[in-house]
Amino acid sequence: MSVIIPCYNAARTIGTTLRSIADQTLLPVEVICVDDCSRDDTVEVIRAFAATCPAPEIILHRMPQNGGPSLARNAGWSMARGDHVAFLDSDDIWHPRKLEIQMRVMQETGSFGSSHARKVDLSLSPPPAVEVPAPQPLSFTGLLYWSRIITSSVVLRNSPDYRFPEDMRYSEDFKLWCRILADGHRFMLIDVPLSGIVGGHDAAPGLSAAVLKMERGKLAVFRGLHREGRISWPRLASVIAFSNLKFVIRRIQGLF
Prior knowledge:
single chain; alpha/beta; Spore Coat Polysaccharide Biosynthesis Protein SpsA, Chain A; 2 domains; 8-stranded mixed beta sheet; 39% helix; Glyco_trans_2-like
């Protein structure tokens, strides 16, 4: 198992993020921290943590220029030696049993990938106990209508066939999950929260412009799938209409 963390100006949070990996009941082989030209002390914090952490191995890779999360994740992915890869954002933390639970589910189901429920407050000490329900397979059609996959929750088999699209800045992760499921791979959802934000609270809601760009990115993914012949014209119209409806509802709810 290789864990990949893209980092940009993450000095305040990356130490806590790395600690949550070192505290896993199933340790990964390596943690690849990809610094995307941070302007703060991110690199120094990573080096200091690595110097005092006997396991897992902490690898620091520095990008030659800022390229965004997809480029950083792919750089780390290309270096990964593990049979599986897990993705973690530099301001997120994991429940201590996260990797243990997901690897067991993937081995038992023979799945290519897995993810778990949304983020919760993991700042409690000790962390809350978890009961693992029966995992449920996620279908390609289901993903089109309800994108429930959080990047920091994902574990995948390490395959050279898949990478994050580097030509997108928004919804690029959604495009990758769609490709994997459209190719017929088995992907399991585990309905238990196993990740959280450093500090125990969600970040402030994104700016309206960013939210709109994410929605536009998702619509671009839908159109790309149609051009590739992976979804029909009626399906394209249906998922676009449903996505627009959800977007409008979220915007209205944000006003109150």
